[in-house]
Amino acid sequence: MSILNKVLKDLDKRGQKPGEAERSGGSAVAGPPSRTPWIIALAAIVLAVIAVIASYVSWEYLADNSRSMDAKPQSVKPSEPTPPSQVAQDINFARPVATKTQPDTEARLSENTQQSSSRQDDVNETEPAQQRLSLVSVPVPSQQHSAAPESTEAQQVQQQEPSKQAATLVKKAVKLSPQELIAREISAAQEAAEQGLLSESAVHWQKALTIDPNHIEVRRQLAALQFGRNKWQDALQVLTKGLELNPKAHELRVLAAKMLQKREQPQLALTLLQQAQPQVEAYLEYYQLKAQLAQQLSQWKAMAQSYQALAQAQPTQGRWWLGHGIASQQLGEIDTAVNAFKRAKTLIQHAPTLDFIEQQLNLLVEQDEATSS
């Protein structure tokens, strides 16, 4: 019974029912070893070989795709393309690995039929080879994709640089010359005068005169503005200051004499003009005003001198000869007066004036006959 119990226990451990051991051809106590592990090992080896072949085929497909992808970016001409030599090196670097794995795979197939343990090691060795193949085919497209952002960044930098330069404002201090400063003040004074801002205009004229006190035109404009504002004393002071700085500024002397004449001070005006003897041809107005003031004051000698100077400067002007004849007649210089009237008669065409000249000639003839008798 004990032996029978041991057999039953042994069968229970092996998963067999009583009598199955006998039908299978073995005893319950000791049977031959099973061949199932070897079949499983052989199946695993076959699957490993199939996996290696599939990986090789997939690598060839990926390599063809990578070469087709390499051809497309080269036609686009990215900003930093991958050199063809580098692509060729990458492809050449990949191919030896592929050719090397093929004989290795065949060797492993032959060895797998002999030893299952060596086949399992070979299967483990094929995994790094597959990883190397996948790593070799990746760099070419990765370089192309990385080159595009770099090129776009470079283009953005190049586009931003001109915009930064265009937006940059440079402040530079420019020093104006005295002439430019005076011109600016004159323009401001004229604009203010046109708008009726006479006080503001006077301020700008004064600023311009402060820059250049010898500027005759600026001084004349300031004096005229002050006289127009009924500030004739300020106007005369401006002109007098200019004559002190430049006694040959005869324009200022003429303007001051006219202001005095309008202020009914002809003697001061004539005295002012008698202080200088400028060139007649350049200052005809000077001598004309001087002759008018002398006639107004009945200063015949000053009048005769002024008109004589004018007649010599412009001998074709009959009015100068007429004035010279009148002054000479008042001085009792009959011969000089007759010659001046006759000269004026040939140059003047105004009928009333000609009648006046004819009357004066007849009067001079009568005076001459009375004196001679």
TrEMBL record:
Annotated keywords: Membrane, TPR repeat, Transmembrane, Transmembrane helix
Region (Disordered): 9-32, 69-163
Bias (Basic and acidic residues) ranges: 9-23
Membrane-crossing residue ranges in chain numbering: 38-59
UniProt entry tagged with the keyword Membrane: yes
Record InterPro entries: TPR-like_helical_dom_sf, TPR_rpt
Polar residues composition bias: residue spans: 127-146, 152-163
UniProt repeat feature TPR, residue ranges: 216-249
Protein name (Swiss-Prot/TrEMBL): Uncharacterized protein
Gene source species: Idiomarina fontislapidosi
